[in-house]
Amino acid sequence: MATFFMAKSTPRSSNIGSSSASPIVKLADDHLFTIMLLLPVDSLISFAMTCKRFRSLTTSDTLWESICRREWGSTSVDAFKSSINTNNNQQLPWMRLYKQVSQLDSFSCHKLPDPDSDLMLPTPRASHSLNFVSDCLVLFGGGREGGRDLDDTWVAYIGKDFQRMLKWQKVTSGIPSGRFGHTCAVIGENLVLFGGINDRGMRQNDTWVGQVVLGENLGITTLSWRLLDVSSVAPPPRGAHAACCIDKRTMVIHGGIGLYGLRLGDTWILELSENFCSGTWIELVAHPSPPPRSGHTLTCIEGTGTVLFGGRGLGYDVLHDVWLLQASEDQLKWVQMLYNLQDIPEGVSLPRVGHSATLILGGRLLIYGGEDSQRHRKGDFWVLDVSKIPSIKEQSTPLNSRGLQANMWRRLKAKGYKPNCRSFHRACADHSGRRLYVFGGMVDSLLHPAEASELRFDGELFLVKFELETGAVRC
Q1: pTM score above 0.85
Q2: Same structural domain for residues 65 and 91?
Q3: Among 108-122, 128-142, 183-197, 446-460, where is mean pLDDT lowest?
Q4: Keywords on this record (predicted)?
Q5: Domain presence at residue 337
C-alpha cells in the first residue's frame, strides 16, 4: 500500500501513439474507468505508472470515491459524506482519504457525557446490548451488582453530527424480560434480539423485534418491542453467544452457553419476512466450522463475509482464532484464517473473551478490550483488516500465516481520554464508521485493582473518533 502513495515517479513511457502500443491505450476514458474499477488497488498502482494519461485517470477523485464504495460499502461512504459540512458540489479528496484510512494508526477518545452533568443515565451494567439505529443509541438489559438482570431500554438521539452531550431517555421496562448475555442485531431500521440468561440462570431462546419511533423535534416517542413469530423451530436456549445481520432480512447466531453450562458450536440462520412479523430459523450444518465457544464476536463486512473472532472454548481456554463465513456456490461456508501469534508484534495479547468487534470506516474491524484466561481485563485496540483475506474461491491451500500477519493485524494508539480496561462491555459505530460508542462492562475494583477476582460494573459512555483531513475540513 505504501508503494501506491509514493507512485508519483516518472511514468515508464508516454509514447502511447506508436504502432506497437497496447490496444488498451486506444480505449475511451469511460471504458478505462470501468476497467479500473475492477482492479485491486495494487494493480491500479501498476496501471498508473505506465503513462501520463493513465496516471491522470488513476488520480481522479471520482474514481477513488467509487473504490471507497467498493471496499468500504456505499452505506459507510454516504454516511461519511453527510457528516462533512461541505458544499454539495465540492468533491472530497477521496484518494487522500483512502490513504489516510489505509494507514490509520491512532484515534481520539472522549468521555460522554460530562461528569458534572445532571442528566439521567443508565445504571452500570455488563453483558447488555448497545446498537446504533435510526440515528439513536439503544441500550437494553444486561447484568448488574448482585447477579441481577436488567429489563430496561434506554435511547439517546445522536443524529448525523457529533454531540459531546447525550440525553438518555428510559423508554420501556419489562418487555422483553430481564436478561444478560443476549444479542441484538440491527437489520435495516429494526433491532432483532435473541436469547440471553436471566438472574435465575435460565437460558432463553425467544426472538424479539424492536423499532425506534421519533417524535416531534427529535424527541423519542417510544421504542416498541414485539415477540417474533418463529413457529416451532428455534435454536436451543443460550446466552453469551454471538450474532449479526448478514443481509437485509437475515441474521446469523453462533455458539454461546446452553443448558447445564455447556458451550455450543452450532450456527443458525434467521430469515425474516418482508414486514418483520415472522421469521424462520434454519440450522447451518457445515464442515469445518468454529469449535464451541462463548463470549466471542460476529461482525458482518459488506462484500466480504461475516468474521468470527475469539471467545472462551470448551477447556476454558481463551481463543484467538479467526473464521470467515462466506457464500460459496450459493452455500454458506466457514473458513478458518490461519496465522501465528508469534509473527505479530505484541500478538501474544490477542487471545480474549468478552471483547467488542465493530465495523469501522474502511471495512475494518476494531477489536477492543475483553479479558484473558486469568480474567485480567484489557484496554487495547486492534484493527483486523479483512480486506487482506482472500475470498474462498482464491483459497486452494491454507493461507500462509507469515504472508497475512504483516497486513491482517495492527494495534492502534489512543489519544485523549484513557478509559479503564474492561470486558463484557458493548460497542457500536455510527453509519459512517468514524465514531464508535462504548458503554459499560466489567472493570477492576477500585479497592483491589490488582486482584483479577475483584470486579465492578461500569456505567460510563465514551466515544472513539477517527480523525481525518479533508483539505479545509478536519473531521
Answers
A1: yes
A2: yes
A3: 446-460
A4: Kelch repeat
A5: yes
